[in-house]
Amino acid sequence: MLPDECSVYYPEELSLFGTILDEVMQALPANLRTAYNRTALAMNILACASTGERDPEELRRAALMDSKVRAAA
What we know:
single chain, mainly alpha
């Protein structure tokens, strides 16, 4: 999704995305559970969701794909 594009989501969808983000964060090792990584994962989930994807397993996979997740310094 380009920066100047926008999407509108229903509350149920936002709840789903938040739940998936929380699950993915909890699955990470403690040293990777940073605010930076949470933002990177959320952006991946939203990028995938912007294509119309709503399958939780696909969104979980997308969260970790092409990710800029890094260990805390």
